[in-house]
Amino acid sequence: MWLPEQTDPETRARVARRFPHIIESTPPPFVSHAIDGIVALLEGEARDLTDIPLDFDDGVPEFHRRVYDVTRTIKPGTTLSYGEIAQRVGEPDAARAVGQALGRNPIPIIVPCHRVLAARGGTGGFSAPGGTATKLQLLAIEGARLL
Questions:
Q1: Domain range annotation of the chain
Q2: 147 residues of the chain, pLDDT tens digit each
């Protein structure tokens, strides 16, 4: 999943470059539900998107899947640190690896990597368009308090 560009034509052009043989069509209901939730969040409504089913392909490493599963438990308006995620996946010394996994998150917002902060409340990175500014905007929408 990608966050959209500034305009629909720019988004369509980026998708067409990445997937030149796809045909645009009406999404199935579960995808429409996901789109509606993401749009609502981006328009300022705090949303918990944990009811959206995920289907990771075999290209997603097991460690990353565990990180994504824990990240999905973080409720809107709250945050965890990379180190806290590492502890919850059973690898307390793997905070850097958690950051790398989240940097490769294939479905940001649904796997809410924006809710994961660096030690002592630092923002850490965010690989979606807009970088940390987008991360901070999402956290503000959700009412998260930063140190």
A1: 1-147
A2: 566 677 888 888 988 998 899 888 999 998 899 989 988 988 888 788 999 988 887 789 999 999 999 999 999 999 999 999 999 999 999 999 999 999 998 888 899 999 999 887 778 777 676 778 888 888 998 888 876
Confidence (pTM): 0.82
Catalytic residue among 98, 110, 113, 116: 113
Backbone phi, then psi, for 49, in 5-degree steps?
-105, 25
Residues forming beta bridges with residue 117, ordered by sequence position? 81
113 included as an active-site residue: yes
State which fold the 1-147 domain adopts. Arc Repressor Mutant, subunit A (1.10.10)
Question: What b-and-e string marks burial along 102-119, b requiring 16 or more CB atoms within 10 Å of the CB?
Answer: beebebbbbbbbbbbbee
